[in-house]
Design a protein that fits this description.
The chain is built from three helices and two strands. The chain is mostly helical. It has one domain. Strands 1-2 form a two-stranded parallel ribbon. The longest helix is centred in the middle third of the chain and has 12 residues. The chain is globular, with a radius of gyration of 15 Å. It starts with 31 loop residues before the first helix and ends in an 8-residue tail after the last strand.
């Protein structure tokens, strides 16, 4: 059986994006415990499923990480996964 795991950032009042879809509201105070959790979650995945609006920014961000960045090892994993995206609910045929 396949599993679908959801990992997302959400504000206390239920928002997942700021004005005009901006993600600059998120803070990134990642300690070792949070980093270990994220790595264990992503290490157990076979693919990434993204919404259509998030796909471009996600791919562009992780592909641009430089080898001297502390994020590089994680970025390599992110761009190594098959990425599937959902474009438009109004065009979906179930």
């Amino acid at each position: 059986m396949l599993e679908l795991k959801l990992q997302m950032q959400i504000s206390v009042d239920g928002y997942v994006a700021g004005l005009n879809g901006k993600l600059n509201w998120m803070t990134w105070r990642l300690d070792d415990e949070v980093i270990a959790f994220i790595q264990s979650l992503t290490d157990s995945c076979d693919a990434v499923l993204l919404g259509g609006k998030m796909t471009e920014g996600f791919v562009n961000y992780w592909e641009a990480v430089k080898p001297d960045s502390p994020e590089f090892a994680f970025a390599e994993r992110m761009v190594g996964y098959p990425i599937y995206f959902y474009q438009d609910a109004h065009q979906a045929h179930w």
